[in-house]
Amino acid sequence: MMTELHTKRLYLRKMKVSDTSSLFRIWSDPDVTKFMNISSFANENQAKEMIELLDGLAQANEAIRFSIVELESTEIIGSCGYNSLDFEHAKAEIGYDIAQAFWGKGYATEAINSLVKHAFTTLALNRIEAKVHPENVNSIKVLQKLNFTFEGTLRQTERVNGQFHDLNIYSKLRTD
Known about the structure:
Layout: E1 4-6, E2 10-14, H1 20-27, H2 30-33, H3 44-59, E3 64-70, E4 76-86, E5 91-98, H4 107-121, E6 127-132, H5 137-145, E7 149-160, E8 163-173
Parallel strand pairs: 5-6
Antiparallel strand pairs: 1-2, 2-3, 3-4, 4-5, 6-8, 7-8
Helix pairs in contact: 1-3
């Protein structure tokens, strides 16, 4: 499985343990993790464990997560990837997070666009899905810019900190 993608301003590469401190800074920000299905990290070891877990899923060809590197500063500004890969049904679910200092600059749209293109061309997938908390307006805007279709609301589909949450589901097909 390919481990890097390039865009005009970004380099997406497979996460590695050496990314721990950079990703910890992002994943410890409660504004970044607010709509993710994780609690904000309290120590770097949690970030290291997450990277190792994601590496195991990548080894099993079940998921792949990229660190998003801004080319100009060479700084890791977030992560994105295929949260699940289902080759039998030719589909994947995507996810992404961007450090707050880089919000509103089009980086998420640029990164996700490259993931979608890679999924349809190189991975030969037919469908990309994204599940988004209904209040995550910025994430919804990213998906709308990329012409994802809102399919509906999955009611109380995810439990975070003992609370059930709805998620909106968006999709994009190869033929869209």
